[in-house]
Design goal:
By secondary structure, the chain is an alpha+beta fold. It is built from five helices and eleven strands.
Length: 220
């Protein structure tokens, strides 16, 4: 197996009654988890035990385990009320520190690329938790167009931007999608850039007649 994901979230059973706070915190941690995932995709670290690390916050940490789905659970000390008192602009540091605690605990019992993971966390913090990447770039020579889909993920949301240049001059710079910062919320909503008739279209991963197109704009 190849290690692909690091998740951080409060214990789903322990904090079940606080569903709104639980969901909010899970979303807020994903800009960090996503950054690690994209670096892990390049590293391709082989593990004989699991392909994801789940760092679970709980009032009473217990021993972790590897389940049959290829996931290792690592339990760390966590207080939800304390977490929610941390100002939003400082919460990325708070979540990053919790991830370090969990990863260090995981590394004590399992082989993981701990040095790489800590280096990436350092880089992300140094860059102000800027998590941006180019999803796709396509050139349409017949129209002298270059189109780019650019992603940005923060503690608050995920945005997808379409940038279009014609003869090297930018003619469009527009956010065409905003979702919660969760891959499940945005992954299926965009796939490709195409020319259809007289329009530039951004397609989704869906096949429904009214769901296939995310965004459409006339060719410049």
């Amino acid at each position: 197996m190849i290690l692909r994901d690091v998740f951080l979230y409060p214990d789903l059973v322990e904090f079940h009654a606080r569903r709104k706070d639980l969901s909010s915190i899970k979303d807020q941690t994903r800009h960090i988890g996503n950054y690690l995932r994209r670096h892990l995709d390049k590293l391709k670290f082989h593990s004989n035990e699991f392909n994801r690390i789940c760092i679970i916050g709980t009032e009473n940490p217990k021993d972790g385990c590897v389940n049959s789905c290829g996931s290792v659970s690592v339990y760390i000390k966590f207080n939800m009320d304390e977490c929610l008192l941390v100002p939003l602009h400082l919460r990325s540091d708070y979540y990053s520190d919790l991830m370090r605690v969990g990863l260090k605990k995981c590394a004590a019992n399992h082989q993981i690329p701990i040095d790489n993971l800590f280096t990436w966390l350092d880089e992300l913090r140094k860059n102000g938790y800027k998590n941006e990447w180019l999803f796709k770039e396509k050139k349409f020579k017949n129209y002298n167009l270059k189109c780019r889909l650019e992603c940005n993920m923060t503690i608050e949301n995920f945005t997808l931007k379409l940038r279009v240049s014609k003869n090297e001059d930018e003619v469009l710079d527009k956010i065409i999608l905003t979702t919660p910062p969760d891959e499940i919320a945005f992954h299926y909503k965009f796939k490709d850039i195409q020319i259809e008739g007289e329009d530039i279209v951004v397609t989704t991963r869906l096949n429904g007649e009214n769901e296939r197109i995310l965004f459409r704009t006339p060719i410049f």
